[in-house]
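Long-time lurker. I teach an intro course on protein structure, and each term I like to show students one example going from raw sequence to a predicted 3D structure in C-alpha cell notation. This year I'd like something fresh instead of my usual example. Would anyone be willing to generate the C-alpha cells for the chain below so I can use it in lecture? Attribution to the forum is fine with me.
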Amino acid sequence: MNYKIIQSASNTELKHLSRLIAQSHYRRQHRLAVVEGIHLIQTFMQAGHSIHTMYVPQLRADDPEIVALMRELPAQQIVLVADHLLEKISDLTHSKEPIAILSLPTQIEASIDNDVVVLERVQDPGNVGTILRSALAAGVKHIVLSKDSTDVWSPKVLRAAMGAHAYLSIQTVADLDIWRADYAHPLYATALSTEARNLYTLNLTHPVGWLFGNEGSGLSAKMLHSATEHVIIPMIGQTESLNVAMAATVCLFEQQRQRLTAGGTLN
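-- Reply from a regular --
Happy to contribute to a lecture. Here you go:
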C-alpha cells in the first residue's frame, strides 16, 4: 500500500502531534490523546476506541506486530515517519514505537449506584496510572478526579495505567463537593486520624467510594469532612504511611477479597 511519509521536522502534522504529547491544555482543546507503543495501541483498538492517525517509524514498517496493527486501519490513517523525527517528539526515551492519536471519550458522569475511586489533587502520573490499573483489576470501573489532579490523559499516565483507560469511565470534575452531594453510598477516606477505622473491620461487600489525596499533603480538610468515615491500613514497624497508589491498591483488593469470599461478583 502507499502510505503518506513525513521526513521533515517542520511538518505541520508532526508539530500538532508534538503539542498533543507535550501540552495538556492542547489535548483538552482538541479532545485528543496520544498513546505510544504497540501494546497500548492494540488495547485501545480492541476496546473499540477510534484511532484518528497512527504514526509508524519508517524503518519498522515491516515489523510483523506493526504490520498487524496497520491492517486494522485504513491506509489514509497511517503515516510513516523518519525514525529520528518520532524519536525527538516522543514522550519515551529513545523511542522507536508507533504513536497513535485517539479521540477522548465523551465524559460520562460516574454512576452514583456503583463503586468509585475519587482522586483529589493527586499529582504524580505514575501514581494515577497505577491507581487506574488497580481499580480495573479490582472491578471498579468509575474514576473521578478533581480538576487540579494531574492530566489523566497524559502520555505518562496512559503508560503507567497500561491500557486501563480503555475500559474505565473517567470523569474530571470542577467541584468534588458538588459530586459528593449526589453520591449515595459510603465514601471512605484514607487518613491518619484518631477516629480512623481499621480497613479490615469494614464491610465492603456493598457499593462504596474511595477517596485518596495528594502525595504530600493528603486530602483537603473539606474532603476529609465530607467522607463517611476515615480509614487506616494497619502497619507493623516504623512505617507511618504508604504511597497513595499502594494504599489505594491495598484498599481495592481488600474490597475484592471480601466480595469474592462472600460469593459475590465484581462490578
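Some talking points for your students: Residues 244-261 form the longest helix (18 residues). The radius of gyration is 21 Å.
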